[in-house]
Amino acid sequence: MSVEFIGIIHTQNVSEIHPPAGPVIDVDYVETIARAHDEGGFDRALVAFHSTGPESQLVVAHAASVTKNLKFMIAHRPGFTAPTLAARQLATLDHFTGGRVAVHIITGGSDEELAKDGDHLTKDERYARTSEYLDIVRAEWTSEKPFDYKGEYYQVDQGFGAVKPLRAPQIPVYFGGSSEAAIPVAGKHADIFALWGETQAQVAETIARVRHAAAKHGRQVKFSLSLRPIIADTEEAAWARADEIVAKAKAIREAAGLPTSGHRPPNAGSQRLLDAAAQGSRLDKRLWTGVAAVTGAAGNSTGLVGTPQQVAEALLDYYDLGVTTFLIRGFDPVEDAIAYGRDLLPLVRKLVAEREAQIEAQPAAAVG
Fold first, then answer.
1. CA 65 vs CA 41, 61, 68, 247: distances in Å
2. Whole-angstrom Cα distance, residue 14 to residue 32?
3. How many Å apart are CA 93 and CA 56, to the nearest integer?
4. 115 touches 171 (CB < 8 A)
5. What pLDDT digit, counting tens, does each position of 25-71 carry?
6. Which of 4, 284, 303, 334 has the most CB atoms lying inside 10 A of its own CB?
7. DSSP state of 8
């Protein structure tokens, strides 16, 4: 199996240690960070979705115009655009970008955030709607003749997509969501299931659950893991930087009147990260939960800390569990993306190639 690396493109320089400043859409910044990922050898970059943020597809359209090879992972919330139209929008963008589009389905775990866009369904209802939504999206992408669809949330009469994805049969579908309502939908629809940076035991458990759900549909799913690597020339320097990041993130939240402990967001992914953080700030070989504990695991907020070689080896442990995509982003977004491309990605790809060579050699050795 090959390994894929995904970075992230925000529309301004922002992270847990960089409060939002300046225009919400800083065009120069978008171009700078997109090129950093492109030149650094990342396979894709995520453009996130939030109920108050810029529209992800439009951001990708511009980022694609200033890059050559970088592909994109468009976070998309089902239910706010008709699925027939969304399928055609994504397929159209796929053509204009030369086949560089993937979609990341984010159903949404916070009732409060969803209400900002006028959505008042329960979580279980939202995931049921997502399943219907993706049924229709895939039909638009693949059907060679008009189709009808009758579900609880959508009814389509003679739907048809004249524009198909550039690379048949369809655009890759990444899927996020760890709740009981999410897993069956992931099993039916996900090409790549996205986890946040959990412990190895938690990751193994979730992979087993999703594989079981996918098997019911005769499908196989790949897996992505999101982490925030902290790398430095020495392990001591890396842990010192991790400590500095926690202190700065805590100070920024306190200044903004935000809690720094004891708060649990409603989404299952954050709760799983907080369950890990409750076990300690340093888990497994070098999994670090410091920022997750401070922020209430608001987003992917756990990391791996050490030298590039140490972090690469820790990533390989997850690869051995079945993870073939790593979404990595730093706390200094541009600078860290450059460092990852220079110091980390080549090491991981080398270790993966060596591991695959070992696996391929085993049958021959057994025969011999």
1. 17, 6, 8, 38
2. 14
3. 12
4. no
5. 999 999 999 999 999 999 999 999 999 999 999 999 999 999 999 99
6. 303
7. E
Judge whether 86 and 137 are in contact, CB under 8 Å.
yes
Kindly give, in sequence order, each residue whose CB lies less than 8 Å from that of residue 162, ignoring residues fewer than 6 positions away: 88
Do you know the residue count of the chain? 368
Of the candidates 179, 185, 173, 203, which has an alpha carbon nearest to the alpha carbon of residue 302? 203
The first and second tokens of residue 124, run together, are 């279980």
Closest by Cα among 262, 259, 231 to 245: 231
Cα–Cα distances (Å) from 319 to 190, 212, 223, 316, in that order, read 19, 19, 9, 5
Q: What is the DSSP code (8-state) at residue 166?
A: S
Instruction: Read off the pLDDT of residues 297-352 as tens digits, 9 standing for 90 and up.
Output: 988 999 999 999 999 999 999 999 999 999 999 999 999 999 999 999 999 999 99
Nearest to 146 by CA among 98, 62, 94, 84: 84
Residues 49/56, Cβ–Cβ less than 8 Å? yes
Tokens 């919400």 locate to 24
In 3D space, the residue among 256, 253, 228, 252 whose CA is nearest the CA of residue 242 turns out to be: 228
Q: Say how far apart CA 333 and CA 7 lie, in whole Å.
A: 9
The neighbour count for residue 302, using CB atoms within 10 Å, is 25
Which residues have CB under 8 Å from 208's CB, separation 6+?
A: none
Q: 73 has which bridge partners?
A: 46, 102
